Amino acid sequence: MSGEFVTRAQAALPRLGATDKRFIELVLSDPEAVVRGSVTELAQKAGVAQSSAVRACQRIGYRGYQDVKLAITRDLAQRGEQEQELAHEEGIDSRTSAGEILDRILRRSGRALVDAARTVDPELLSLAIDRMAVAGRVLVVGNGTSAAPAHDAAYRLSALGLVTTYPTDVMAQHLAARHLDDSCVCLVISHTGASRESLLAAEAARAAGAFTVAITSFTNSPLTRVADAALIAGGPEYGFRLEAMASRLAHLGIVDALFVGIAVRRPKASTKALDVMADITIEHSL
């Protein structure tokens, strides 16, 4: 099953305590039991107290067990369509044509993007847009598999006229973060939220007074604990596809949302900057 609950649970699971994890893993293994049963029954089955079961639901972003039940009910209602997609995607091997591989991978990529919309907090996204739209300077940080979406983010923010820097050297990132102040924003993109180099830059930016935005895949990581606005969009592992590859699509989707949000917050400045970008594009076209 895919959907809201599974996406939120998978994003939170790696950092949950043993008791919370035991209850959430039970729910993931048999989501229909949640619809049929009570929190008392499921807590007993998981071997945890009822209060612990409720807290586990709260720690993955719900107000309580009843909210989890409603989310799973919605997800199960869509399961027929999901099962058809999964059946269509299974069985890729050396005999599968390139066209079929493309079709199946893009279907899963599309679902990863839909699921991401359920984990990003819209209030935090709005706050990040507001702060970035008026920032004196934006520092963008991303390493490893997150370097590509970070580079794209820096390029697009620059296209809107924002003063944006994107150092590729980790020491240069750390140094640039130290030079920020409370008028600045540091945008850090990290799949795991535990990359030492990216975390050092985020901590330095926060200490310097900058507003720190994180785009990451897990709800409780060293990076989310540092960030003022943590935008969570993860992706499950898909066979030959690396988990970070699936999540990268979702992270690029968040970058798109930031770009559009900033553009509409400052329409005159954005239009002027994008006109300049259009002129430059023409100059570089044959």
Automatic annotation (TrEMBL):
Classification via Gene3D superfamilies: Glucose-6-phosphate isomerase like protein, domain 1, Winged helix-like DNA-binding domain superfamily/Winged helix DNA-binding domain
Record InterPro entries: Homeodomain-like_sf (IPR009057), HTH_RpiR (IPR000281), RpiR-like (IPR047640), RpiR-like_SIS (IPR035472), SIS_dom (IPR001347), SIS_dom_sf (IPR046348), WH-like_DNA-bd_sf (IPR036388)
Keywords: DNA-binding, Transcription, Transcription regulation
HTH rpiR-type domain boundaries: 3-79
Signal peptide positions on this chain: none
Cited Pfam families: HTH_6, SIS
SIS domain: residues covered: 128-268
GO MF annotations in UniProt: carbohydrate derivative binding; DNA binding; DNA-binding transcription factor activity
GO biological-process terms attached to the record: carbohydrate derivative metabolic process
The protein, known as: MurR/RpiR family transcriptional regulator
The species this protein was found in: Streptomyces malaysiensis
